[in-house]
Amino acid sequence: MGQGRLEGKVAIVTGGASGFGKGIATKFVGEGAKVIIADLSKDAAEAVAKELGCRSMLTDVTKREHWQALLKFAQDEFGGLDVIVNNAGTTYKNKPTVEVTDQDFDLVMNVNVKSIFLSSSVLVPYFLEKKKPGVFINIASTAGIRPRPGLTWYNASKAAVSNATKTMAVEYGPQKIRFNAVCPVVGSTGLTHLFIGKPDTEENRAGFVSTVPLGRGSTPKDVANACCYLASDEAEFITGVNLEESRSTVADVYRLQKAYRLGKDVGIRQVTKRGSRVEFAIRQGNLPEARMGVIYEAEEVESKSLRHNYKIYVNSEHSCCNNQ
Ligand SMILES: NC(=O)c1ccc[n+]([C@@H]2O[C@H](COP(=O)([O-])OP(=O)(O)OC[C@H]3O[C@@H](n4cnc5c(N)ncnc54)[C@H](O)[C@@H]3O)[C@@H](O)[C@H]2O)c1
């Protein structure tokens, strides 16, 4: 037996054919786990499984019988199951909430939430019956904690994932079945163009990424490293955690962006400039200049114009945003 951190463990990774899931499957195989990639995309799943030297199974995570078949496959092929990473997820394209269709709503709730329900409904009884510790890792999102506009029901679906994770952690802690969630901030995957409502380019991601304190989006490797820890015995005393990768303060940012866009009633006035840092005052409504609101600090991030190229820091909390 090797020295991998997941040596001897059998893991299902849903949505493992691409994006974060592929990163998770790659890490798990590298750390000695026996992995089953469970994905709706049969060809992509088979190709990744071949590349990694693991197994794949055509799975629709919204179907109970597919979860039952996955459990049987794990038992027949590997003699059991230890870890489930509920990573498969989807979204509709970023749009005004009043334009979201019934189909959009059903899609995110089925793929993102019902999948967690079904995985626990089918697999928890297995762990209970075998009296063995099990590990559930659910991929939620920072969107479920600090939501952005235009993705109301995706955000709500991820909030449900986070909440269900915490609830089941409390409920099944006594049986040593652990439930944790990883909440990535935006990354560059097959879903990103839908999140931002535009093509997934560095330029179009910039508004999202500018709110991330560590200065970049998340990668499959980031998500995989967090999952590896939570799946490993190093995390045997960790349950009910929503591990955020990485924290930002989006609510403040959007309040400010909205105010900035209102134009004639709200203004930003340059107060002082120190090196590349600029202080702004926000003027709201018809308040006289003497009663201008909070002072904001900004840092020039490009050099084209005052209107579009400042990163704004709100008060002393140092939440930041791009003012475009
Ligand atoms: N990309 C981001 O910025 C971001 C940020 C936070 C959270 N997430 C979450 O990360 C997870 C992975 O998404 P990703 O960004 O890697 O996207 P992705 O589109 O690259 O991967 C999603 C995978 O899930 C599979 N899938 C979709 N519906 C399925 C179903 N019904 N049954 C089985 N498989 C299905 C797809 O075939 C695909 O392989 C999702 O839960 C997503 O919500 C993504």
UniProtKB/TrEMBL annotation:
InterPro entries documented for this protein: NAD(P)-bd_dom_sf, SDR_fam
Keywords, comma-separated and alphabetical: NADP, Oxidoreductase
One term of GO molecular function: oxidoreductase activity
The organism's place on the tree of life at top rank: Eukaryota
Keyword Endoplasmic reticulum: no
Keyword Cell wall biogenesis/degradation carried by entry: no
Protein name: 3-oxoacyl-[acyl-carrier-protein] reductase
Species for this entry: Exophiala oligosperma
